[in-house]
Design a protein that fits this description.
Layout lengths: L12 H11 L3 H4 L11 E6 L6 H16 L2 E6 L5 H10 L6 E5 L3 H6 L18 H6 L1 E2 L2 E2 L5 E2 L3 E5 H7 L7 H11 L5 E4 L6 H13 L10 H15 L12 H9 L3 E6 L4 H5 L6 E4 L17 E4 L6 H14 L2 H11 L2 E2 L2 H10 L4 H8 L12 H16 L5 H8 L3
Parallel strand pairs: 1-2, 1-3, 8-9
Antiparallel strand pairs: 3-11, 4-5, 6-12, 7-9, 7-10
Helix pairs in contact: 1-4, 3-13, 3-14, 9-10, 9-17, 10-18, 15-16, 17-18
Length: about 400
Amino acid sequence: MISKRIAAALAGATTVSLLLVACGDNGGGGQSSSSSGDSVKSLTILDYYNNEPDKSLVQKGLDSCASQLGITIQRETVPGDTLIQKVLQQASSKTLPDVLMLDNPDVQQIAATGALAPLNDMGLSGDGVIKGMVDATSYQGKLYGLAPVTNTIALFYNKDMLAEAGVQPPKTWDELKAAAKKLTKPGRYGMAFNANATYEGSWQFLPAMWTNGGDETDLTSPQVAEALQLWVDLVQSGSASKSVINWTQGDVNDQFIAGKAAMMVNGPWQIPALNKNPKIKWDVVTFPLNKPDQTPVAPLGGEAWTVPLNKDQAKQQKAADFVKCLNSDQNELAWAKARFTLPTKLALLDQYAKDVPSMKAFAEQVKTARARTGKLGDKWPDAAKVIYQAIQLALTGKASAQDAFKQASGG
């Protein structure tokens, strides 16, 4: 799931870089150097899984690896929107943890500051991991994080509503617009999505933009404008609510659960809430294509586990071994099944889809999914801001889909 990132906290990159590089001399709380990995008895961990059930589910995985490695762990959890600020504070005070969890779009930004140890140097690799996640967690040719699980977004639909209207799950944009129009009636919209003025609004737009061949390196291209026109058409036709400019992904799911939307763009983290409402019969398909020869491309979510630089080489290696354990096949499958997420290893996806049928579309979608930072690296937040500002301009009628990105870019 996309996190609430604090781009502003990273604005002072030069200062941050100095702080983080300094922490490498004495990280992990200033431990002295150990001669062998066997002498390492405990590791400190920082993550933002601070809410249940994720907090306990993740703890179970952490405890399992601690047991396998014969160590104890001291874990700290913080709210998602405070993690980066916490990392910067710990860097300045040289108290970074031994193992640090980061949202995948943040890995390159933190790696660029010199705070993280390259995992390749400690016997880890991204072999067999979906390309999008390797792209997200690599910086200047080196791997700095591994994510046991990932997620993405696709198209949910209410099976009963579509059956009643004689509508098949849409495979193309034209079919999506036609289906949404036919499914719309008093008190119900055919389609719901999040188009708010946050990174979440940009994240939900990416399947349309990327699938259509649009690219964050050229936001004024016809392909990007066509994708924005899809959102505009859905709203202007009355098939989607004008309120999408304010909705979060949680709000979108609430509309779907309440029967006020027949289809929605959303992620698998909504499945537990959907399962609490057994009257709703739903399914998921990959995001529709504008043209038949296209491949659905959606953004990758999920968090990576990293190893901050540490003067204590034995402790740093033990932390890397811990990250390796978290990313074992067994743990990837266990975490994915427990949390409605997806393994990041390609070889596990087909079996996982068979074991958890509700995740089949997501398992397909994630194979071709992309990292938000894959092309722009730490400049991605700037592009994301332009994207959500352009969406707002177009959906409020202040600019055409063709002009919105030029206007949002300051052109």
